[in-house]
Amino acid sequence: MERHIRRFLNKLSFASIAIATLILIFLFLQTPQTCIPPNSPSKPHLKFLKSSYDSTPRELVSIDKKNKRLWSSNDWKKKLSSFINFFQSIRDLGLLHNHTKFICVSAGAGPKVMALSHMGVHDVTGVELIHRLFW
Ligand SMILES: *[C@@H]1O[C@H](CO)[C@@H](O)[C@H](O)[C@H]1NC(C)=O
């Protein structure tokens, strides 16, 4: 009886392995529907770079248009206000002036750069690994 059950379980295991293998092969052969073809004309902003040196021209979008949604978010406004308060305290100490040249390395999306610019600092440059932000 016990031997009979063992055989049955072995057959069940082999059947499960076979089904799992077939499903795996099927999945390998499928292109996921979330993949977007690289040259898809309907979504040019999702065009993938062919390499890190890809220099094919891309549509130029103004920085205002590109960041409109980000800049209208509450999170951004809070960060901006926080940095303006922080830089204002530095200005109050006499360490920051409108003519101070400022470079912000690893600026991210640029809330510090925008804060300084809004405060009237003339020469602010933010540098990020991918983006370079000018104000
Ligand atoms: C700095 O610039 C801001 C905004 O343009 C201005 O309100 C402020 O008076 C300027 N400060 C000085 C010391 O010029």
From TrEMBL:
The keyword Transmembrane applies. The keyword Membrane applies. Keywords: Membrane, Transmembrane, Transmembrane helix. It comes from the Eukaryota. The chain crosses the membrane at residues 12-29. This is Uncharacterized protein LOC103485744. It comes from Cucumis melo (Muskmelon). The gene is LOC103485744.
